[in-house]
Amino acid sequence: MTVSVALFDLDGTLVDSVPDIHAALDRLMARLGRPGFARAEVTAMIGDGVRVLVERALAARGLAFDQAALEGFSADYTARAAEETALFPGIAEVLAGLEAAGWRMAICTNKPARATAALLGALGIGGRFAAVGGGDSFPVRKPDPGHLLATLRAAGGEVSRAVMIGDHRNDVLAARGAEVPCLFAGWGYGTPEMAEGAAAVIGRPEALLPALLGHGRG
């Protein structure tokens, strides 16, 4: 029997990670002698992977991309990724409910695999996921559907019984390319425009479990 698989984005979907990303970017800027950022600036930079995040941060302060800055940020953030980051309220119940219903769960995120593993481990939820596809786990990453499909294969699932949940246009585009429905996480960091093409917009985590179980019955 084929099991249903829920593929989750991480930042802005399962966890509110902006506080730690913001702090790490501000520490990077301090090392480079530049001012830090407002929270809204950091939120808008998230979603396309760590290299693009650092590129955007450096450009916002008039600096060219620098590999040493990327490596320094990555090491610093990975070591301190869970100081303030937490699951969004209601997400723990979603994960428990899916597990009780016999679903398999996976992570499909553009965050690097090492930082993802560190964060999941610190939050004590790493063992819930059948597969974790980080931004550097495969040759491609979201919005390329190959990232979603490779994560789904690693989780032992099939397209016909899979649902993607994410808060960014990259999640919607990857899901559409893979012919998997996407539920847009309206509580996350994405703008309403990013939800275009999603199967549905879910306004709060409490509404996610019944929406997923409804897809599973389909």
Q: Summary?
A:
The protein has nine helices and eight strands.
Q: In words, what does this structure look like?
A:
Belongs to the HAD-like hydrolase superfamily. CbbY/CbbZ/Gph/YieH family. Its cofactor is Mg(2+). With 218 residues, this protein is α/β, with parallel strands linked by helices. The chain has two domains: 5-16 and 85-217, Rossmann fold (3-Layer(aba) Sandwich), CATH 3.40.50; 18-79, DNA polymerase, domain 1. It is built from nine helices and eight strands. It has helices at 18-31, 39-45, 50-60, 67-79, 91-100, 113-123, 145-154, 169-178, 208-217; strands spanning 5-8, 15-16, 86-87, 104-108, 131-133, 162-166, 182-185, 200-202. The strands form two sheets. It has a six-stranded parallel beta sheet, sandwiched between helices. A two-stranded antiparallel ribbon has the order 2-3. β4 (104-108), α6 and β5 (131-133) form a beta-alpha-beta unit. α1 (18-31) crosses α4 (67-79), α5 (91-100) runs parallel beside α9 and α7 crosses α8 (169-178). It is globular.
CATH topology of the largest domain: Rossmann fold
Overall spatial form: globular
Assembly annotation: single chain
Tell me the span between the first and last alpha carbons. 15 Å
Number of spatially distinct domains: 2
The biggest beta sheet is recorded as: 6 strands, parallel
The CATH superfamily title of the largest domain: HAD superfamily/HAD-like
How large is the count of helical segments? 9
Radius of gyration: 17 Å
Please state the second-level CATH architecture of the largest domain.
Answer: 3-Layer(aba) Sandwich
**DSSP, total strands:** 8
SSE succession? EEHHHHEHEHEHEHEEH
Neighbour order of strands in the largest sheet: 5-4-1-6-7-8
Helix/strand/pairing category: alpha/beta
